[in-house]
Write a structure and sequence with these properties.
The structure is a homodimer.
Chain A lengths: L8 H20 L4 E2 L7 H6 L29 H11 L6 E3 L4 H14 L16 E6 L3 H9 L3 E8 L2 E2 L1 H7 L5 E6 L13 H8 L9 E5 L17 H7 L6 E6 L11 E5 L1 H11 L8 H11 L2 H30 L5 E3 L8 E5 L4 H10 L2 E2 L17 E4 L6 H23 L5
Parallel strand pairs in A: 1-12, 3-4, 3-6, 6-7, 7-8
Antiparallel strand pairs in A: 2-9, 4-5, 8-9, 10-11, 11-13
Helix pairs in contact in A: 1-13, 3-10, 7-8, 11-13, 12-13
């Protein structure tokens, strides 16, 4: 099949007619499909329901104290051990949270504003301006936190090995640049793994701000859906080795290991940062849910045992992601209409459409009953300067639904491109 | 027995000699007792361990959606219903939190600083000064939140019917006074129930600040340990009726109904406030632990059923509180050495010693192996201007331990008073 870019006007007109007819036929089906959010499917939730059976009798609740009662601000010993093992760090570097790492991330930044970080001269609320680096495309909820605090977000291009470090190293010299979002493994949405070299360059950045805050959201650290576990460097010790021990806070959770709303989260940083944050956190809480921590420590045991569980998740997820990639490879690749990474883990496929057609593709899909993540959502302020990036999230629906949604998506992608190429969108 | 204040110098010297000997004998025992924090005892925890049996199979997790997955920011329907029933408000007024109401309180104030409240002109971080009313004695963790944000705390005296409202009504006219802490039922530490008149006067205060924040910590709303449930007015509708719908945020939790670190918390306010806060909270979280919410909704059912459970707690707690009160009534009352309320609920007994002797009493207890809440902790900045108030928390230890600790406490109270009266403390 000829690429659209190589078609002449007549060929384009014929293709437009054909694809429009396909689209009208799809619309008649009255579909109602959703591939917009990275939610696990019911089969994945049921996979771990036996987690609620691990604590049974009154004698089950001891772990450095009665976990049902107050105390142990930074979490119970067995949960610290588990998460230190998963992240490849040590127990004194971790703080165990509630069901959402997002809350720990928000709290860290919120405290930078209200109290300042360990190395801050003043709380950020007293600063004229806080600039922040956002590798793009990225995670909308990260950008949402930056936006709610009024940060000036700066786009940094992603490459297949992580953020463009030449750009980053230049930008962080500015002392008004106070931090950066990173999803180092299976980045949201590209599914890119930062190379070891990128990680080392990030850890050893020469930052202008003495309270620079590297937000290292290791959300998908053990989340392979295709192929073996890919080891990752421990950012905490990398930063320490590079003489930047306090610049990084790492985050992870069991949201996509056990259950999204009944899991456990973790924050890791230098011992000094954890001690500093504990003093601030002690004012707002006595500890997170320690019964749930113990339930998770008993259930997941250690990294190796957790990886066994992740293989079961992979078995469920892989066919859904294959449906997405198969459709793109079969329908879109020959037309040269879009590019994408081929992730082997994480929760998304990120598609870069022909510039200026992402919003139109989204609109067409919606009209045909297929809900996608908003076009633009993967950029700060929801503004994709190229109107090109789209995030597909196939984890929730059944494989056959993903397949059906992708038929719609590919048709809409073609139709939007044809409209653009024939001038109908201008 | 003669009151100390009525003894002459010779009588005081003889009594000092006798009590000193008693104290030395106690010290020889090498005790290690703790009545410092309002923690439930193991017997209370075991009482509710069957809560972990209520969710069993994969089909148990539905409540307006699969509670294991993302979504439902403000909580699940059945938990909203339960807490609305307990608080006497409606479901649209409540937001369900995680295991700690303290975190919801902190978040509310933190957001006043970073974003402002619904009716704020500017975030409080931009204000020169935030003044705050603190009925004293009060809860140290409340004052800790005020202190960490740099508020200027103003002491307001407590009366047997709640805060001295003549004082409060005068102070709140100042537009720099932006809020007030209240524990309306079984106040911490006095165990006082605000009278209906006090509640009505609070609800209808003419406040100078248009973003005044009444922090209504209804921590002990169903926590009778002696006698029948005492109904309480619904502060949300009281404020609405008085034309102050947005001044109040109410808080409660199951920390002392089910389990301190695996419970569910709730925040209630005007519908408009809840909507406003949801927009801000949506940035930091997707929802709190909904599995635990469902577990609680199924286990506690409604207010009536919850009160049945509270009677079982009362049965465990009453003897411990009786031990405290018996000791005070027998050993201290005849000497006219201290005053206290006789609470019928809550978690504390608050003792007002002879002025200038609370710290010395605390020190003597510690030296004899009995840990009490720090003297001064019940006041802002940890500073009791009279050095008089002490909080006793007998819930955790066994009744015989409470009895033993109270023997020590009464002896130390006498010794400190005698030292004061004989000039040894000056």
């Amino acid at each position: 099949m000829k690429k659209y870019a190589e078609m002449n006007a007549k060929e384009l007109a014929a293709e437009l007619e054909k694809v429009t007819a396909d689209y009208e036929k799809i619309k008649e089906k009255g579909l109602n499909l959703n591939i917009s959010r990275g939610k696990p499917g019911k089969e994945q939730l049921d996979l771990v329901s036996d987690i609620f059976d691990v604590l049974k009798s009154d004698s089950d609740f001891d772990d450095g104290g009665d976990v049902r009662n107050y105390g142990m601000l930074d979490g119970i010993p067995s949960a610290k051990k588990l998460f230190a093992d998963i992240l490849g760090t040590t127990e004194e570097n971790v703080f165990i949270g509630g069901s959402a790492s997002l809350t720990l991330m928000y709290d860290t930044i919120s405290k930078a504003y209200t109290h300042g970080l360990k190395n801050s001269n003043v709380p950020w609320s007293k600063l004229d301006r806080v600039k922040w680096l956002c590798p793009v495309p990225g995670y909308d909820r990260h950008f949402g936190i930056s936006q709610t605090f009024g940060m000036e977000m700066i786009n940094v291009p992603m490459t297949p090995t992580g953020p463009d470090m030449d750009v980053v190293e230049e930008l962080v010299k500015d002392p008004e640049v106070r931090g950066m979002w990173c999803v180092p493994k299976y980045s949201n949405p590209d599914g890119i793994i930062y190379s070891d070299e990128t990680v080392k360059r990030i850890a050893s950045m020469e930052v202008g701000a003495n309270d620079f805050l590297l937000m290292w959201d290791n959300a998908y650290c053990v989340h392979e859906f295709d192929g073996p576990f890919v080891p990752f460097p421990d950012i905490i010790s990398e930063c320490a080795k590079a003489g930047n021990p306090d610049i990084v806070f790492e985050f992870a959770s069991t949201s996509k290991i056990t259950l999204p709303r009944a899991g456990v989260s973790v924050m890791a940083s230098s011992k000094a940062n954890i001690e500093y944050m504990k003093k601030l956190l002690n004012i707002q809480m006595i500890s997170y849910d320690k019964v749930n921590m113990l339930r998770h420590a008993r259930y997941l045991v250690d990294r190796e045992h957790t990886l066994e569980l992740m293989k079961k998740h992979a078995k469920i997820l892989k066919p859904k992601f294959r449906s997405v990639l198969n459709a793109l490879e079969k329908e879109i690749e020959p037309l040269g209409l879009a590019t994408w990474q081929t992730p082997k883990g994480g929760y998304f496929v990120s598609v870069n459409t022909m510039p200026g057609t992402a919003k139109e593709t989204w609109r067409l899909c919606k009209e045909a009953g297929v809900v996608l993540t908003n076009a633009g959502a993967t950029f700060p302020y929801g503004k994709d300067p190229e109107d090109s990036n789209m995030r597909l999230a196939p984890s929730l629906p059944a494989p056959e639904v993903v397949k059906e949604a992708m038929e719609v998506y590919c048709t809409c992608l073609k139709l939007a491109a044809l409209r653009k190429l024939t001038g109908a969108l201008d």
